[in-house]
Amino acid sequence: MSKTKKIETLTGEALLRRVKELENLSKEEKAKECGYYTVTKNGVERVNMMKFLNALIDAEGIQLDSKQGGNGRGGRSASYRISVQSNGNLLIGSAYTKQMGLQPGDEFEISLGRKHIRLRQLNADEIPEDEES
């Protein structure tokens, strides 16, 4: 019997936060602490490094299967497409926020359409219409 209860497998932002918290551990220990391991019939714990690394890639929003841009350089580039993550979140990557010159703390008003989401940047002194008195 195992002495410890299996840790919940983390994904998305929760995974990224936890990996940052565990910066002093080895990658195998980080994977295990984030729930990427199994226990064999004999009670041996096996770390699932591929699942862990793939989850990190997904959490960062890196598209390995998409075609590379025509400039021949590697690295991230804005594909102007995102997918809903397994936890239900939509992640807008840093390629877009850098391109727009956004800073931490910048705020947006969200309006939902039938199959679209619109973001409208708010100025620090601007109050959304539904919050006005």
UniProtKB/TrEMBL annotation:
Keywords: DNA-binding. One of its GO terms (molecular function) is transcription cis-regulatory region binding. This is AbrB family transcriptional regulator. The keyword Ribosomal protein does not apply. The lineage of its organism: Bacteria, Bacillati, Cyanobacteriota, Cyanophyceae, Oscillatoriophycideae. It holds the Pfam family AbrB-like. It comes from the Bacteria. InterPro entries: AbrB-like, SpoVT-AbrB_dom. The keyword Lipoprotein does not apply. GO terms for cellular component: protein-DNA complex. Residues 79-124 form the SpoVT-AbrB domain.
